[in-house]
Amino acid sequence: MTDAERHDEKIEVVFSSETIAARIESLASEIAAAGIERLLIVSILTGSFIFAADLLRGLHRAGLDVEVDFLALSSYREGTTSSGKIAILRDVEVPLAGRNILLVDDILDTGRTLAFAKDLIGARGARSVATCVLLDKRIARTVEIEADFVAFECPPVFVIGYGMDMGHRYRELPFVGKIVA
Ligand code: IMP
Ligand code: MG
Prior knowledge:
Helix 1 crosses helix 2. A six-stranded mixed sheet has the order 4-3-2-5-6-7, with helices on both faces. Strands 1-9-8 form a three-stranded antiparallel sheet. Helix 2 links the parallel strand 2 and strand 3. It has one domain: Rossmann fold. The chain contains three helices and nine strands; from the N terminus they run E-H-E-H-E-E-E-H-E-E-E-E. The longest helix is centred in the N-terminal third of the chain and has 17 residues. The protein is of the alpha/beta class. The protein is globular. Inosinic acid binds next to strand 5, helix 3 and strand 8.
């Protein structure tokens, strides 16, 4: 039985774990080449926890020493659509003033979550705020924001796996997939 067959719904692989792993190495090199000093990674929970964990180790292999902290945001999604309201569920612990931050999220969809996080961190006196997402779903954007580093352009479908959920399920899948009818 394959990973994709273990659930009730039929799941199709969009980005395989091998494809993701290879892209993380090149993405880490791109980030290292940007030459940002004393980088503090801020991983937006919950969706980015697996991507951030893999990216951090990629950055280590690319020769960077980084720090990491977590910001848990809730965008109150109803099913698969965004409500627009964002709340801080857990704040960062590391003081942000004067720091160079790399915000890491799973997917840039409407853009509201990343824009909210970027404003919040900027308001705390960060020296610089760069953004990095695993997936960019450009077609869904309602807020004008672009990520500085993007692993993959995402097709216009609801994706799951590799940290991303649908109703709290599927985060554990080692690949990015979509549910097919
Ligand atoms: P935005 O605020 O609309 O850009 O949405 C960003 C957040 O919504 C992401 O951090 C994800 O947690 C979630 N999200 C958006 N699109 C998807 C999707 O296709 N699958 C799973 N989660 C998604
Ligand atoms: Mg998220």
